Amino acid sequence: MPPPAPAAASLVARFPRERTWLLPALDAVQRAEGSVSPEALAALAAHLRVPASEVWGVATHYPEIRLAPPGRRLVRVCAGVSCRVAGGAELLRACEARLGVRAGGTTPDGAVTLEALDCAFACGVAPVVEVGHRRAGRVTPADLERLLGAPAAHGARDAAPPAASTPPPAVAARGPLARFEALRAEAAGRRRGLTLAVGLGSCGEAVGARETLEALRAEAARRGLDAAVVAAGCDGMCWAAPVVQALGDGPPARAWTVPAARVPAFVEHVVSGAPYPRPDGAADFLAGQRRVLLERCGTSDPADVADAIRGGAYAALAQALDAGAPERVLAEVRGSGLQGRGGAYFQAAVKWAACRAAPGAPKYVVVNGEEGEPGIFKDRHLMEGDPHALLEGMLLAAFAVGAARAVVYVHGEADLAAARVATALAGARAWGLLGERILGSDFSLEVELRRGLGGFVLGEETALLESIEGRRAMPRTRPPFPVEAGLWGRPTVVQNVETLCAVPRIVGRGGAWFATLGRGHGTKLFGLSGHVRRPGVVEVEAGATLRTLLEALGGGSPTGRPIRAALVGGPSGSLVHPRSFEEPLVPRGPVSPGTGGVVALDAGASVRDVVRTLLAFNARESCGKCTPCREGTARLAAMLDGPVDAAGARALAEVVQVASLCGLGQAAPFAVLSGLAEFPEELTR
Question: Domains along the chain?
Fold first, then answer.
């Protein structure tokens, strides 16, 4: 390996000389230079005191790390199922023709690198094309010339998080609840009048929400409108984005579709009541939901901790700290029946109790915000729209299990979500809700934000722990389980974002209340995409049916062709036939909700193409540790090149499922198995 380059050496020198900082340092180098050169790898090995061969092994393991520089402009076309069925494959071919280069290549002059992207995670505005890290949604072939010919622009990767809200004055009150009431009074004193909240989430940003925000601020200033214009998260109405909500002390918030060009007309509506239409179907979309976790998304300013407190954030934490009884928090979570929302649906209270009882310190809470499954985008939605709910859930979990440290791990390309979480962390610290002696109690928690660099396998909790420690993301053999020996061998609870966002509501309103929802399973978030009129994020009580999701909330097929199948659960999910659309979506039921992704497929969609896409992704994303997963997923994918031998495919799938170490391999064959069971005529001929 060549000697370290001076620039690379200075870039990595700011990191502590410990292996755990290997991924953050790789990420920093790539963001600064566009790729990671051999010189940078040498600098990392020297500074972190990790063998050069192991640095190379880590760098080649994570799919988002580039070891060769791309062209001066990077163009990526989403090839996930949601985008494919919306025309993404045609867009990729059009880009190849326009640029004169195949996907995966760079033009001879080095100007453009063209790639297929596994998922842009803006499925509600599919199809998506990304140019220079800036995403555009609902792209048509007619848009490509404009997108590819536009001057280079910086996207969210280069955007700094907004400044946190101003800290409150010193609080002299004693006791956590008294201190919190003083904070709540301070937050109430900062209440704004009229607020115009622009839904600036990943989907909204891809269809012009940032331009709407800027135009709305300019127009409000020009008209002298006494209103705060804030960048909120998305309220789930991705199909109507860019969305603006008017919030005040009057009637409940209402949402409107407001592209930048329509801002003057919208402001006139706000000022004088002039007519301005609401999005078609908005009432039906919202009326069919039970919003618990989503209640503040789209209406709360994620950059303002005072706004979060006014909306109810941190009240449950203050009450728990004031009572001083972690067992009560654990009891409420146990009484709620809360199950992990990462797909396995393991009882959260069982995991927490085991960690609390395990010897060893410090104990950790790890928030898994990686969400690397194509077609799944609800966790990003929560982090972008209500990051304080996530932080409060994390704090309550840490208090319950006796943890002193926490790590929030966010997908490497979820820049908006990471920026919102970083701002929320800074705001919570400034208001005494994080750090040493929180709200004057004996409870302290130090939190670190980490970024991933790709890898579907990071959904498996032990692979995630390996990644944080600076290693290849490969599952560990169990036992011991993470609650006994997790991060750096210490007792660790790993939970995903949706799970933790439910905890403040459970502790605040009572576990018994949550257990009355959804046949004892609470509520569940779903990302709707594909062939539905109203794609977006919805929250319903567990036990809702696909018929409800696709028709009552999603509005049915927009193409005039009937929906012939639904992909439920992403690459680890299954294809569901319409005959099962009335089955309740409950864990371990005939139709499992999985991780919460639902892609509708109309009669024009190819089941073979969908299954091939999913299997190819699983084969690429296999960490390689298990031979059945590494080899079996690739062989299953190859079977789809012709008529599938059903018996041979089922036999191979059984080997992959039974012999794989982690959930990625165990669930990888679901797509082909469900395709053979429900649509055999499409795969076997």
Answer: 6-59 (no CATH), 73-154 (3.40.30.10), 176-287 (3.40.30.10), 313-515 (3.40.50.11540), 606-685 (1.20.1440.230)
